[in-house]
Amino acid sequence: MTGAAPGRSRASRAFASARRPVASPTKARASLSSQIRNDNLYGTVYFGGANDQGGVFELEAKGGNKYALHYLYSFSGSDGSGPWELSYAGQNTGARYDGASPLYGTTITGGAGNSGTVFSLTPVGGKWNFATLWNFCAAGCSDGALPRGGVIVDPSGKSLRHHVV
Predict the structure, then answer these.
(1) Does any domain span residue 46?
(2) pLDDT at position 36, please?
(3) CA–CA separation, 105 vs 121, rounded Å?
(4) Strand 55-63 and strand 127-135: pairing?
(5) How close are the terminal C-alpha atoms of the chain, in Å?
(6) Minimal CA–CA distance to 34: which of 76, 95, 82?
(7) Per the structure, how many domains does the chain have?
(8) Is residue 87 domain-resident?
(9) In whole angstroms, what is the distance from residue 128 CA to residue 25 CA?
């Protein structure tokens, strides 16, 4: 591509210049966050998903370095928009994701106050249950807004701390 910055994808240049790229996991800001014992990968796309508000996806390992894409959740705006990294209990200790515990993340916008959310996705019976854990409020609130970082979950999965950068 003429004029392309070395080492930067089309999506990252589009995101940096605030132009909206075509929504797809290969052209939007994507974060691959964790790997489980069956070599499936989990991550987020800032744009894309069924509602073009971002989504959480699984890349199912098919062998031979091939994967199948499955969306676990697509954001609609009222439940968040523009998800960032995923985390899980024990991630900071180097433990692999077990495939049964909740995944946690943040969205930079959307939610009840349109200022971002903290969410969880929990696998139950072959499906993923979504829950909003926190809605950041609009300007003038003491809890902040527009989170741009992941959440830290302790090894037990019982406490959750958010790091805003």
Answers:
(1) yes
(2) 54
(3) 9
(4) unpaired
(5) 32
(6) 95
(7) 1
(8) yes
(9) 19
How many Å separate Cα 129 from the centre of its chain?
15
Amino acid 38: pLDDT: 66
**Token pair of 79 as six digits:** 């439940």
What pLDDT shows up at residue 152?
A: 81
Q: Is the pTM of this model over 0.70?
A: yes
Q: What are the CA-CA distances from residue 50 to residues 44, 71, 88, 124, 129 (Å)?
A: 13, 9, 24, 21, 17
77 assigned to some structural domain: yes
- Three-class secondary structure of residue 162 per DSSP: strand
Q: Which position has the token pair 């959750």? A: 160
- For residue 4, being part of any structural domain is answered with no
Q: Which amino acid is present at 75?
A: F
C-alpha to C-alpha distance for 13 and 65, rounded to whole angstroms: 27
- 51 to 48, 100, 124: CA distances (angstroms): 7, 26, 23
Quickly list DSSP for 15-81: HHTTPPPPSSTTTS-EEEEEEBTT--EEEEESS-TTTTS-EEEEEEEEETTEEEEEEEEE--BTTBE
Regions of the chain short of the pLDDT cut 70: 1-38, 157-165
Which SS3 state, helix, strand or coil, does residue 128 take?
A: strand
Where in the sequence is the domain holding 49, given as residue range(s)?
10-162
